[in-house]
Inverse folding.
């Protein structure tokens, strides 16, 4: 299950908390991190994101990992993912 699907399955109150934390996390990300994360959470593979953005899938993987690290530090994602 993707993080997006997990968030979609949350209660309204929990989604509000996620929205608040994301509001804190997104400004801490670079534009590239935001773009990679947005497309990845929309269901694209890392290869598809890379093709869309003109970068390698390895670069996408790194940017998604960095973006999720920011989100984790802001309190959304547990360390079990």
């Amino acid at each position: 299950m993707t993080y997006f699907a997990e968030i979609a399955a949350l209660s309204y109150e929990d989604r509000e908390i996620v929205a608040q934390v994301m509001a804190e996390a997104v400004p801490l990300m670079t534009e590239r991190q935001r773009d990679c994360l947005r497309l990845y959470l929309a269901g694209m593979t890392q290869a598809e994101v890379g093709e869309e953005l003109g970068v390698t899938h390895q670069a996408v993987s790194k940017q998604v990992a960095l973006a999720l690290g920011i989100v984790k530090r802001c309190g959304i994602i547990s360390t079990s993912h």
Summary: The mean pLDDT is 83. The first helix runs from residue 3 to 8.
